[in-house]
Design brief:
There is one protein chain. With about 170 residues, the chain is an alpha/beta fold. It is built from 8 helices and 6 strands. The protein has helices spanning about 10-25, 35-40, 45-55, 70-80, 90-95, 95-105, 115-120, 130-145, and strands spanning about 30-35, 55-60, 85, 110-115, 125-130, 165. A 6-stranded mixed beta sheet has the order 2-1-3-4-5-6, with helices on both faces. Strand 4, helix 7 and strand 5 form a beta-alpha-beta unit. Helix 4 (about 70-80) runs parallel beside helix 6. The radius of gyration is 17 Å and the shape is elongated.
Amino acid sequence: NVTGVDTLLSALDAKRLDVLRQVVPKATKVAVLISNRQVFEPQMPPVREVARKAGLNLEIFDTRGVSVSYNEAFDAIARSQSQALLVMSSPLFARDSKPIIDSAARIGVPAIHGEVRNAREGGLIAYGTTPAHLDRQVARQIDKILRGARPGDVPVEQPSRYEMAINL
């Protein structure tokens, strides 16, 4: 009896890894930034499959929410000698995008992010939906409900538009 927009987080994270692989073709080791292993584990199978097919070694770096600072996590990424960074989709990482972008720049690792605005903020690459597009999709669903449709009759939708931004 509900409707909404499924943002396809795990599929997009896998696509982001594929884009990152194309942008940094010599990379063999990719750091993956997560904020809680239990939460992110369900998102990982498609990412691991892309890595397997591309011959990439993934190294997971768990910030465990706020208990580990981003500086500590990025120092560990630098020590790992990872050649690229996949920042997994997360509301926490969306909120903390600036320190993540600054930390990636500090250690010199090319990173891909989940929100287009991250490239405007200084991140190297971003691929995903935009909040404005998602808001319009949700508004169309709300309009249907306000006009009498039952929420259970309005299908859950997937985003219909994705954008990629590259910070030159």
